[in-house]
Amino acid sequence: MAQRGFIFDLDGVIVDTAKYHYLAWKKLANELGFEFTQQQNEMFKGVSRKRCLEILLQIGGITASEAQFNTWMVEKNRDYLAYIAHMDATEILPEVPKVLKYLKKMNIPLALGSASKNAVPILEKVHLKEYFDSIIDGNQVTKAKPDPEVFLMAAKQLGLAPQHCVVFEDAVAGIQAANAAGMVSIGIGEKEVLKEAHYVFKDFTEITVPFLDQLMKSTH
Ligand code: G6P
Ligand code: MG
Predict the structure, then answer these.
(1) For 6, what's the count of Cα atoms within 13 Å in the CB-facing half-sphere?
(2) Does position 219 have pLDDT exceeding 60, yes or no?
(3) CB within 8 Å of 217: residues ≥ 6 apart
(4) 211: which residues sit within 8 A by CB, 6+ positions away?
(5) CA 186 to centroid of ligand 2, rounded, Å
(6) Cα–Cα distance, 212 to 121 (Å, whole number)
(7) CA of 175 to the centre of ligand 2 (A)
(8) What mean pLDDT comes out for the span 151-163?
(9) How far is CA 50 from the centre of its chain?
(10) Which atom of ligand 1 is nearest to 44's Cα?
(11) Ligand nearest the Cα atom of residue 189
(12) Residue pair 116/47 in contact by the 8 Å Cβ criterion
């Protein structure tokens, strides 16, 4: 039987950084004179920093010069980095280390597939970097999710065919990217939101060892 690989998104799957991204975008929106709600923040999940700012400015009805746009990108990231500065292993989402440990024990190759340019420092802060055989992040990808590029690059680095890879994702765009790559997609979040995923769980506490074993054997 062919070797399976598991690919994890970072924000909202391994760590709960969505709240810090939200606070940083909200701060910028407020400075520019408009509101930015948690509900609007849903659209930002899995989406590159540049695309997020484009959407934010659309919401606020603001047009910006390239120089101004770049200044706001830098400002948002500076605020985000300040929010995550003191992040530690307590911010890992429930049962994630247990699942990573089990997959490692079963010799499953693991990859990270994230749109974030801050992925590596975050993994280092929470001491999970050593679990990943391959890390593909916002510094390498050119096409944002829902384009499958990030996951196809991860599969390639693991030396596996896309159909032998399983993806854990919390974003609609991420599930679409995994499906477009021909992978098994596991949504982490709400069933009503992640409708296109092959399976959906509220969080990793709902994912059992027999289910992981089944994924290791499944043909897709
Ligand atoms: C993840 C998050 C997005 C974020 C993107 C870029 O995909 O879900 O909300 O915009 O990464 O993150 P970065 O850390 O590079 O700004
Ligand atoms: Mg995510």
Answers:
(1) 26
(2) no
(3) 1, 4
(4) none
(5) 12
(6) 28
(7) 10
(8) 97
(9) 16
(10) 9
(11) 2
(12) no
